[in-house]
Design brief:
2 domains; six-stranded mixed sheet; Nitrilase/N-carbamoyl-D-aminoacid amidohydrolase; alpha/beta; 16 strands; eight-stranded mixed sheet; 537 residues
Length: 537
């Protein structure tokens, strides 16, 4: 096979994946065969190596994934050109290395185990990528099905990795089908290739049938509660942290909220960093913003207010410093936080600090190595430098006893992380975000669509408040309602259900991810051992 054909196959998979991705091409069925060109290329190169040809697979798989990353997440450039380049390169590089390990395994253990290695190593990498300092899981394969919730209702058992498995195995079966037919010089509908065709049909049909049944029979659970979500539409580049004072912004938001808030409204939610002017949490009651919130709360004493803010904690003289501690111009040590505040009339305010940070934006990766760079980190989302998070997933309780999860922006991309809120008692999910940094691009639409997956995984209704972009309500089946438009101020109200039942996925989390990691390690050890034995022989 010529180099040009190899490049064409690699580019083909990258383009097909992007064409099937939500809010990019949105032709979802393409995902189920988008990887066929790349996997065929991997098999061809493996055959060449076994015949003694020194062909290299890694450059082609990197090219394919780099193409996919650029076409689907190019909008990150609007927030940070430097950060986007890093994300494109590293995200492609790490997954390419995982696929290269599967290629290594195929060469030593054969095609059968090589196919399993592709699945295990891919999903193992996606799982590992969920929880380390460079975590950027936007392109987890299962996320590609977010815009078709009616075919992924079984995510309540598998989580998003079930979608990754479905897509990967579909592509591998199609490759097997094509190669088997070619090997016997037959048509794909003739024996023995047709056997793989039958396997592929069954593999595709069973999840579709299961999901269709669940979609039809599932009834939302829990008590209906009235929620108001506010979208103030404040320009994050020129107004939020620039020309408009924090007091003016907060006043505008609460004027919007009053349009829909009633005596029966249980929650009113406002976006991430709705209070942009940072303040010491210990003196919140002394701020002008507090006075505005207090005035609104006195009009609606039964309503729980949840609002995003930029806050900080000052360290005392003998207090132990955190790894994220900074030093102000006058030498004061402090932690900066991206915070959700729970507020109700005549009661103390409660705080939750965002804990899943955007790497390189809200968190310096590997702080022991790169701590000196903390103050040089670029700006995104209204915060600069490494933010301080917290270990516990705090839930906010309303006067009627309903428990809300205050999920802040990027945190909503992590299924098992959101499950920690639910296991702590959350019967409803609130997502507060500021997606305006990405401008009118697929970014904010993808972010909203990924929330549909969280609703299915945990069977929790969601209210979403965005500074601008998409504020909406999502029911327990992942159906979106009252989605707001781009760059318009809006306020929406709905009765959504507060469910207390736990799904299988909520209880047990990413079993598929952990299983893939374990089996992937075993396969890799076996492949290395086989390689060493063959070398000695």
């Amino acid at each position: 096979m010529t180099t040009a054909k190899k490049i064409g196959l690699a580019l083909g998979s990258g383009v097909l994946l992007a064409a099937g991705w939500p809010s990019v091409g949105s032709a979802t069925p393409l995902l189920f065969f988008a990887l066929v060109p790349l996997f065929l290329l991997e098999r061809f190169i493996a055959s060449e190596k076994l015949e003694g040809t020194k062909s290299r697979f890694f450059p082609y798989v990197f090219l394919s994934l780099f193409t996919f990353n650029i076409l689907t997440t190019w909008w990150v450039w609007n927030a940070s050109p430097e950060g986007s380049i890093m994300a494109f390169v590293l995200n492609s590089l790490f997954l390419a290395l995982a696929i290269q390990l599967a290629h290594f395994t195929r060469l030593r253990l054969g095609n059968f185990r090589g196919n399993f290695a592709l699945i295990f190593f891919w999903i193992a990498w996606e799982y590992f990528h969920m929880d380390w300092d460079l975590s950027w899981t936007w392109l987890t394969l299962g996320n590609g099905l977010a815009n078709v919730p009616y075919i992924i209702q079984w995510y309540e058992y598998t989580g998003v990795f079930g979608g990754s498995l479905w897509i990967l195995a579909s592509n591998i079966l199609l490759v097997q089908w094509a190669l088997k037919a070619k090997q016997h010089d037959s048509k794909m509908y003739q024996m023995p290739g047709a056997i793989f065709g039958f396997k592929w049909v069954v593999w595709m049909a069973v999840p579709l049938i299961i999901s269709s049944v669940i979609w039809e029979v599932y009834e939302e659970k829990g008590t209906p509660i009235e929620v108001v979500a506010v979208q103030p539409n404040i320009d994050p580049y020129n107004e939020k942290f620039g020309s408009l004072t924090s007091e003016v912004q907060v006043r505008k938001m609460f004027e919007l909220a009053e349009q829909k808030t009633t005596s029966s409204t249980e929650f009113v939610i406002f976006p991430e960093t709705a209070i942009p002017n940072g303040f010491d949490e210990d003196v919140f009651e002394d701020t002008k913003e507090f006075a505005i919130i207090q005035s609104f709360a006195q009009k609606f004493p039964n309503t729980q207010i949840i609002i995003g803010a930029s806050t900080f904690h000052l360290f005392g003289p003998n207090e132990k410093l955190s790894p994220t501690a900074r030093t102000s111009g006058n030498g004061v040590k402090y932690d900066a936080c991206n915070t959700a505040i729970s507020f109700r009339a005549s009661e103390p305010s409660l705080f939750y600090h965002k804990s899943k940070m955007v790497p390189g934006v809200e968190k310096v990766p590997f702080p022991q190595l790169f701590r000196p760079l903390q103050d040089l980190i670029f700006d995104l989302g209204g915060t600069i430098g490494s933010l301080a998070g917290q270990e516990e997933r705090t839930v906010f309780e309303s006067r009627n006893g309903h428990q809300a999860a205050p999920i802040i922006c990027y945190e909503s991309v992590y299924g098992e992380f959101v499950g920690d809120f639910v296991n702590n008692g959350a019967d409803i999910l609130f997502i507060i975000t500021n997606d305006g940094w990405w401008k009118d691009t697929p970014g904010y639409r993808q972010h909203a669509q990924y929330a549909q997956i969280r609703a299915i995984e945990h069977r929790r209704s969601i209210a979403r408040s965005a500074n601008t972009g998409i504020s909406c309500f999502i029911d327990q089946k992942g159906k979106t309602s009252q989605a707001t438009g781009w760059w318009v101020p809006a306020v929406i109200s709905s009765k959504i259900r507060a469910n207390t039942e736990l799904t299988f996925y909520t209880k047990f989390g990413d079993i598929l991810g952990r299983t893939s990691l374990a089996f992937g390690i075993l396969l890799l050890v076996f492949a290395i051992s086989r390689g060493l034995i063959n070398k000695d022989n």
